[in-house]
Amino acid sequence: MQKVEIRPGVWMAYEDHWFGRSWTTPESVVMIHGNAESSRAWDQWVPHFAGKYRVLRPDLPGFGASTEPPGYGWSAGELAADMLRFLDALGIDRCHLIGAKYGGSACMQFAADNSHRLRSLCLFGSPFRGSNPAGDDAGERLAVDRDGRAPRRAHPGCGGRRASRR
Fold this sequence. Notes:
Low-confidence stretches: 131-166
Largest sheet: 6 strands, mixed
Order of helices and strands: EEEHEHEHEEE
CATH superfamily: Alpha/Beta hydrolase fold, catalytic domain
Radius of gyration: 16 Å
Strand content: 25-35%
Number of helices: 3
Number of strands: 8
Shape: globular
CATH architecture: 3-Layer(aba) Sandwich
Strand order of the largest sheet: 1-2-4-3-5-6
CATH topology: Rossmann fold
Helix content: 10-25%
Distance between the termini: 43 Å
């Protein structure tokens, strides 16, 4: 397991897998675990992705082998900010982000704040808690186009399969 300092005194441990051709540069998939878990929650998925993508599985702050920052509150906003620091520390401009359970809630916050850093967002069993003080639907800010640009909203009645521009 590797470690990277994301801010002074705060280290995130992570697994880094790439089984593809060494002369290619793969897109990155970042997998964020849920509460009371670690990067090991994604072990079974590595063989499915690592032949095509670089698979990064961090231990969130205070979980697994990562340090617990003093006074950390584990809010979706704090976790999303540390996920951004993690990507920056590894020099990853854009990634496919996959989150489960509460880790997925942090991924939703990350997507709302940093859609330009995403290639895609995939969530498993993740609760959504709106916290937008403006009162609009914060969930609408989560969908991004394939280039990570302008937010879009799912077409009514399509189950999110198609999207239309605002």
